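REQUEST FORM: STRUCTURE PREDICTION
Request ID: SP-0412
Submitted by: Lab K.M.
Chain count: 1
Length (residues): 393
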Amino acid sequence: MSNNVTVRLGKENYMSNYSQFPISIKSGKGIVLTDEDGKEYLDFVAGIAVNALGYGDEDEKKALLSVIESGVLHTSNLYYNSHAVNAAAALNKIADSKEVFFCNSGAEANEAALKMARKRGSEKGKSTIISFSHSFHGRTYGAVTVTGQDKYHKGFAPMLPGVVYAEYNNIDSVKSLLDDNTAAVIVEPMQGEGGIIPADQEFLSSLRTLCDSYDALLIFDEVQCGMGRTGKPFCFQNYGIQPDILTLAKALGGGLPMGATLAFEKAKGIFTPGDHAATFGGNVAAAALAEVVLAKLPGLSAEVARKGVYLHEKLVDIVLKHPDKAKEARGMGFMQGLDLKIPPRDVISKCMEKGLLVCSAGYTVLRFVPPLIATEDDIDKAVSIVDAALSEL
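STATUS: Completed
RESULT:
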């Protein structure tokens, strides 16, 4: 089919909850995608930080074909499967965590974390969960409640009770809310949808100290900033601060739906049989791809740390060259943002015309989350297109 046919059928049959761009992707190789009309795009979206290994990775192909040939795509959690067990062991080893729960998405991973916090809290007379302004934790009810953005709450009130919001990177605002009824604090070490905003070192360090003082769980949501994207296997490792619960998804499943909730020592053993479940959690095919991603994660992370500095420097140059249209470049590794003075969607559309896929974050930020295999040459090409787009707008 052509882009036009697919787009028309999509508009006729989909619910209208997305504002999609009028192209349909047909194939991909490396970090280049091709649409149904044959046009190629350099991809700096990666399925919104999902496709860490790009497209057509041979090890992913072999893993997926092996599962298909076995005839078993799904077993349920009534039984073990070696792929999920191996992926859990790899996660615990790399993160230094103790237990893993597998699910299907970042929202589900956060739902599990919130239930863990409430279950532990119920045993200690605690229930309040502190989240942060401009945060994003998912679209399910618990996850959207702890999402600190009114636009995601509009039309869905009442939100779940017992959730309060502090100001991100402002520890005094946390202190004003924290008390003996606090069960947990949930925070992104780097806010993604909120506008690519890294946490301050002192802020996270103080959160860790405060949670210990009040016997509250510290939950790090690394659904977007985890899995090597910030130059370490997990973002918290950049800060040297360990959470009690870590939530992951996006790149974990190598392109298939997969999320995970990791428990560290303080949160170990909270869930017991019957407390929580996910029918497709630890799905055989997704777990087989997760094995591949996790095997490559340490090496990829080191490369991202180096190349992320290069990407950031190039984006700083863009700010200096276009001070009337760009305000700031910020981020870590391959999770970078360009804060704009003009509407991001205009820039995104212009870049798409020129063969580059980028996306937005918050209201004003152009977001760059390419596959972790992107090269310096890919970065040069992408930034050159952004430069040209800004020059024409």
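NOTES: The CA atoms of residues 325 and 341 lie 5 Å apart.
Reviewed by: T.R.
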